[in-house]
Amino acid sequence: MSGPSRKLWGGRFSKSTSRTVERFTHSLNVDQRMAREDLLGSIAHARMLGKSRIIPRKDAARLVKVLTSLLKEAEQGKLRWDPSAEDIHSAIQTLVEKKAGSAAGRLHTARSRNDQVVTSFRLYSARRIETIERSLLAAQKKLLAQAQSAGPLTMPGYTHWRHAQPVLVAHILLSYLEMFQRDRERLSAARQRTLAELPLGSGALTGTSLPVNRAAVSKELGFSGIKQNSVDAVTDRDFAVETLAALALLGTHLSRLAEEWILWSTAEFGFLSFDEGLLTGSSMMPQKQNPDFLELIRANSSKLIGDQTSFLTLLKGLPSGYQRDLQLDKEIVFEALDRAEGMVEMLAAGVSGLRWNKAALAAQLQDDSLYATDLAEYLVQKGLPFAQAHRVVGQLLTHADQAGQRLSKLTPESFRRFSPAFGRDVLKLFNPAVSVARKRSAGSTHPDEVARQIRRWKSLLKG
Ligand code: ARG
User: Per residue in 346-399, pLDDT tens?
Assistant: First the structure.
């Protein structure tokens, strides 16, 4: 069938749509992935139409039966539709017409594509967000396992990419867990917002004169309530913005981690290495084993950040009521969901294939400047004001530099020349295990505190 009659809206038209317009406005290639959700929406809608006596009960029953069999086919990946249909909603309507006979003409009662599309979009997004939440949880568990197996392993901590203070490797790994926990909470909040209020039943923009039971449809589809304003219902895409914001921030975290691991796995640092199966080679330089997967995690985050901006830009000029601009909402969100899912899966694989190089870490921990803050706090414990302690240690460092000596090789007597508060035990401070064990604050890198955090994470992530 061609010409206006195969459209959902053909009646007003005597002429066929221009091919150019059809090609340009076509969205099936993007929205076909919502086939399952469109069917779920239609099943709930048809059932409600029957129960509310808006359509004959036997027509409703026929529709539910046909739609349910289409749903089964969709879930098995067997559903086929006309590839030239305008969108998945029209494509499915055509299938229903083929199978349900005269009842098919009653399915679109009290419904517009405007409330239908955004209902499918919400259902689809929520399902995909949940998958990402689950993958992120799996990645967190792998990070936790790495933190546990790192045990007392210590590394230099950095600020400004300069040696700062010794820190447990586990403490750094747990810091990633904190970021991803917040990401998971944000995703979960976005998912709840997505399913907070059902748009279906709002019609094109003002509602319907037919006695629909919106609460029943909402319940069947797993929404928590119904949209309270029909105009807002068909134009509200805030849930998608919130999803994209959560994904952009997740991407930013993944990118930071990727950047750090790329650097730590260079020949210059040599702190980390990855399972060979994660690395890729060069077509020209035979020696290369590159962490392309991390570079691409870093790169993909730029798309997630851009997606949020694209989406807000898409919305910002729209007046009340559906505008066709909103057709582009889905491709932005779908791509972002696909991308984020791939990045999180890659993270989990990367964490599993990660090995720490103890010798390289130990070599860097020989730098005496890493213990300068411990020296200053030691003096504070002996009663010096911190500002004075800071100055004393600064002068000691300059002295050792000028004398061409290591600070840790000076005698306790030389230390005492800078402050009589130094005791013989000062030389014990130049030790990474001592440094981390001196920390006492809650949330610090003290091994007992880190062990407590590991226990906390075990119970937080279980299940
Ligand atoms: N494919 C369209 C979309 O994704 C369907 C909605 C069309 N509605 C309309 N009033 N033209 O938004």
Answer: 999 999 999 999 999 999 999 999 999 999 999 999 999 999 999 999 999 999
Distance 202 CA to ligand 1 centre (A): 15
Q: Which residue's CA is the closest to the ligand 1 atom numbered 2?
A: 327
Question: Looking at ligand 1, which residue's alpha carbon is closest to its atom 10?
Answer: 114
Query: What tokens does 452 get?
Result: 């407590």
Q: Which candidate, 176, 173, 155, 177, places its Cα nearest to that of 165?
A: 155
Neighbour-count burial of 162, counting CB atoms closer than 10 A to its CB (0-12 exposed, 13-18 middle, 19+ buried): exposed
Ligand 1 atom, smallest distance to 31 CA = 4
Amino acid 1: pLDDT: 42
**What pLDDT is attached to residue 80?**
97
Domains with residue ranges and CATH for the chain: 19-109 (1.10.275.10), 114-358 (1.20.200.10), 363-460 (1.10.40.30)
Residue with tokens 């419904």: 111
Is the per-residue pLDDT at 226 higher than 70? yes
d(CA 150, CA 458): 15
CA dist., res. 373 & res. 371, Å (int): 6
Q: Is the CB of 327 under 6 A from ligand 1?
A: yes
Q: Are 139 and 348 in contact (CB under 8 A)?
A: yes
Contact between 419 and 394 (Cβ < 8 Å):
no
**DSSP line for 41-98:** HHHHHHHHHHHTTSS-HHHHHHHHHHHHHHHHHHHTT-----TTSSSHHHHHHHHHHH
Residue in 23, 32, 327 to alter for ligand 1 test, most ligand atoms within 8 A of Cβ: 327
- Mean pLDDT, rounded, for 163-192: 98
Residue 27: CB within 6 Å of ligand 1? yes
Say how many Å lie between the CA of residue 117 and the centre of ligand 1: 7
Ligand 1 binding pocket includes 192 (Cβ within 6 Å): no
* Cβ(114) – ligand 1 distance below 6 Å: yes
322 C-beta closer than 6 A to ligand 1: yes
Query: Of 1-5, 50-54, 145-149, which gets the smallest average pLDDT?
Result: 1-5
Query: What percent of the chain clears pLDDT 70, i.e. is strictly above it?
Result: 99
Tokens of 131: 């998958």
Q: Which atom, in ligand 1's list, is nearest to the CA of 322? A: 10
Dist. CA 147 → ligand 1 center (Å): 49
Burial of 282 (0-12, 13-18, 19+ CB in 10 A): exposed
